[in-house]
Amino acid sequence: MSQRKSGVILSYLSQAIQILSGLVYTPIMLRILGQSEYGLYQLVYSVVSYLSLLSFGFTASYMRFYSRAKAKNDENEVNRLNGMFMLIFLIIAGVCLFCGSVMIKNIQVIFSNGLTEDEYATARILMALMVFNLALTFPNSVFDAFTSAHERFLFQKLLVVLQNLLNPFLALPLLLLGFGSVGMVSVTTFLTVAKLSVNVWYSLKKLHIKFCFHGFEFGLLREMFAFTFFIFLNQIIDQVNWSVDKFLLGRFAGTTAVAIYGLGGQINTMYLQFSTSISNVFVPKVNKIVATSDDNTELTRLFTKIGRIQFIILCLIATGYIFFGKVFMSIWGGIGYTNSYYVALWLILPVTVPLIQNLGIEIQRAKNMHRTRSIVYLMIAICNVGISIPLIKLLGPVGAAIGTAISMIAGNIIFMNWYYHTRIGMNMIYFWKEIAKFIPALIVPCMVGIFILSFVDITGLVKLGVFAIIYIVVYGLSMYCLGMNTEEKQLVMGSIKKILRK
């Protein structure tokens, strides 16, 4: 099995482990922490996550410059590139620690009067741990990017699987011993240190990574900064759209509202991760195509092929959530989290379109045509803040999600599809015609879902699981018979045959 296929399979295995552990771990964690402390954890996390912007987009730019150097067979340039990126990220890690210490000292200014004295004390500890954890991820980015460039997806995804598996098993005992949210973040930090150590060992011993810290080409550095600046703008937008809601809720509605939004946002985060499981392993291929031939027809076919596969998977999750999500959320989150269902719904439905087009982001970056997208997204992100504040005051957590949904529809869907077609050179008419071929395959599953929703009273996880499995089987058969093309059917049957042979 190829590294790419293995990487995709392990990505989905990692997601499955994360979801299954979440089904058991999250309700226990919510009940031990309570809404107030869980809301505090989400609030601090949303603020610290802004420091991730210090990467300035350098992580995403590594692949483009690496592919260009490899196309010229210049190993010395690759070594200088590694050295340049390592120096940049070590400096960024230092800046992150400094900014974090300033934030900790001024935590009451950041959160205004929204917290109690005990919550401020806990928030300081959480922030210190989260900042240290984030600082470690910056130098780790170089080793991650180098491993991806060598398409060693099996190793990379195996690390993620282990991380997702160990996190709840290590955190739960600390929660039961009364360490609360501080114990949870301590476990995350420990696993980050372990991951960095393993990445360093693998890159040095197996991939023979080399660093050259002299002879830097300042022309390349200027080009790199120009390229990454617009990726940085895009990261600001993503951070605003996914984190500002929690911050605004903390300011205008309190930690309970943040907790309700946070649980719905957790569903959305899992949904986002499912979409990147496939597209991430094709990033080196996209950069290679652009560096060698820049064939728009080949890129459109790859873009559509990946988009169709992502649509099959994401549409199953989205429609399944529509029919079973409300019951699931009431069982999983418990009393007080009913509105989390609507929060997740408003987030995952509009984001489905940009998620099936995830590979397009890498195509833009490989072509160095991501500037316009970043500028337009920035304007829309500012509008999102303006829209969300009155909606929060009117509808609370659900209003915050609606504000984000409106901004996504305007920018990620309407503008981006026009931009792909008219500027990037992708044939979006062909893309949407291929996606539209799935419509007949959705009719039967949706009818079954409506029937279950209308005539069956689902109570308890067992009953929910039974009907969810029925829906998945109906969806899978309908997609196979009415939606998938020959290549997709061969991919499914080939995977099944390999599993049966084992």
From TrEMBL:
The chain crosses the membrane at residues 12-34, 40-63, 84-104, 124-146, 158-179, 185-204, 216-237, 249-267, 311-335, 341-363, 375-392, 398-418, 438-458, 464-483. Pfam families: Polysacc_synt. Its main location: membrane. GO terms for cellular component: plasma membrane. InterPro entries: Poly_Biosynth_Transport, Polysacc_synth. Keywords: Cell membrane, Membrane, Transmembrane, Transmembrane helix. It is a multi-pass membrane protein. It is found in: Cell membrane. PANTHER family: PSMA PROTEIN, PST FAMILY PREDICTED COLANIC ACID TRANSPORTER. This is Integral membrane protein MviN. It comes from Blautia obeum.
